[in-house]
Task: structure prediction
Amino acid sequence: MEFEQAIRQRRMTRDFDPTPLAPGQLDSLLDLARRVPSAGFSQGFEFLVLEGSEQTSRYWDLALPEAKRGGFPWPGLLHAPVLVIPLAHSDSYVRRYSEKDKAKTGLGESADAWPVPYWHIDTGMAVMALLLAVTDAGLGALFFGMFHERDAVLVELGVPSEYEPVGIVAIGHPTQAARAQGAEGSAKTRSRRRLDNIVHRGSWSPPVQ
Ligand SMILES: Cc1cc2nc3c(=O)[nH]c(=O)nc-3n(C[C@H](O)[C@H](O)[C@H](O)COP(=O)(O)O)c2cc1C
Result:
């Protein structure tokens, strides 16, 4: 697939076929996802992978217990054979920026010294690369937030407290219906902002009507 086509075609998938990924396919996707830029090449992101229903149910049983599934709008999301939890690690950045070549930035003091938490940015870049790699492979994915279930999930999966999940990526084969439909979720009711409304040339300009 051409790069531009992957960007234009990528849509969040919320309805999956339970078919597993091909052997080695997930590793290939994650291998691409890790090849993103990172501040100071700190690479402070890691992926916790749940593969197969026995593992993915460890997440779903906490996030959406059986008794609450009746009213859930995306039942096919629970069929995704893979869940990837991208974890941001601020300590890697603080440690890296306390090294000789970065010490003058003052960012090696503590995470509080950072005006922009680059660990979130870099983990987000890895997520974006993963979403595009998934599209290129003819698969589907949904990046979604982890909310009330967050702490319980981290305990259940034994994640050390210094690792921060930025969300979850469900990956799998979209159902035929999901392939046929257009935008879903928020994108169904909201249109993409116009380029001339988000680009300010030379100086700040008011939005174009
Ligand atoms: C940071 C972030 C959080 C999101 N959280 C959710 C979520 O919790 N549930 C969901 O269904 N979609 C979620 N989405 C997907 C967006 O709704 C989706 O990207 C947007 O509507 C545009 O649609 P598209 O990605 O299909 O083009 C999230 C996307 C991002 C980038």
